[in-house]
Write a structure and sequence with these properties.
about 0% strand; about 290 residues; mainly alpha; about 75% helix; single chain; MetI-like fold
Length: about 290
């Protein structure tokens, strides 16, 4: 009887603990959702009308989608969006491909060489961004890439970031050695082994790296600001900044432009939750 009471008590405590965790998670979600709701309300608030009218209860909130049309008239919004989509369209697949090749090659090297390359990758993550900007500028000028989309796609040639390479490297290192040895015995080349055996088994990690690269290239503000001069080549983050500089008092227009900028990465993040969850489990060794 005593053992049964202890078992029931443990079950009750377990349910209470799970309930507390769920409550904390919901409260944290509401706290994170508040800025999004504020952004949405600001984007739909009528232009040149003080928000205090609504906050003080003087008038009802009537959504106004005309702000987006005004933004499109104020700045070349469509061109900025298309420029960002063009960069993402070419940069994300290239970055994932380069990172995957580099990670798979690292995983097939001798342990001593692997340790050195991992250490170099970690050191590369510590390099200040300003050092990379300064080093890239004369290189891009020599190649004739300044004021072209190539300067914005160029980070994809190193896989986007050493961090992404290390994520994929961790996934490839978890694959059974016998699997790749069997592919080699069947006559598969390293490229075929990567394409047919290794890559399908790290699909979740690859998808997560693609998602992170999308977030990186879509929200990249500094590279277009440094390497692009033509308005036709500028991306959406720079366009939203230009909108803020034109008239800071018309904040509903700024909110509308910011909403257009934030919507694609937010949707990508929500749709990619499963990939990120599986990546977290894999990194924990689950």
């Amino acid at each position: 009887m005593k053992g049964a009471r202890q078992l029931r008590g443990g079950q009750v405590m377990g349910r209470v603990a799970r309930g507390v965790r769920d409550l904390v998670a919901w409260l944290a979600s509401l706290a994170l959702l508040y800025p999004v709701l504020w952004l949405l309300a600001g984007a739909l608030w009528p232009d040149q009308r003080p928000l205090s009218d609504w906050l003080m209860g003087g008038s009802a909130f009537r959504p106004n989608v005309a702000n987006f049309a005004v933004v499109a008239e104020t700045i070349p919004l469509t061109g900025f969006v298309l420029s960002s989509l063009r960069v993402v369209f070419f940069a994300v697949p290239l970055a994932v491909l380069v990172a995957s090749w580099a990670a798979f090659a690292m995983s097939r090297l001798q342990p001593g060489v692997r340790r050195w390359l991992v250490a170099l990758s970690l050191a590369g993550m510590l390099v200040p961004s300003t050092a990379l900007w300064l080093a890239r500028f004369p290189l891009f000028r020599l190649l004739g890439w300044l004021d072209t989309p190539l300067a914005l796609i160029a980070p994809a040639l190193i896989g986007g970031s050493p961090f992404f390479v290390l994520l994929l490297y961790t996934g490839y290192r978890r694959l059974p050695e016998e699997m790749l040895e069997a592919a080699a015995l069947d006559g598969a080349s390293p490229g075929a082994a990567w394409r047919l055996v290794a890559l399908p088994n790290v699909a979740a990690t690859t998808g997560a790296v693609a998602l992170l690269n999308f977030l990186f290239f879509w929200s990249n503000f500094t590279d277009p600001l440094l390497y692009v001069r033509s308005v036709s080549q500028m991306t959406l983050p720079v366009g939203v900044r230009l909108l803020a500089q034109m008239d800071e008092s018309r904040w509903p227009l700024l909110m509308a432009g910011s909403l257009v900028l934030a919507l694609p990465p937010s949707l990508a993040f929500l749709l990619g939750q499963g990939l990120l969850r599986e990546l977290t489990v894999n990194l924990r060794g689950g």
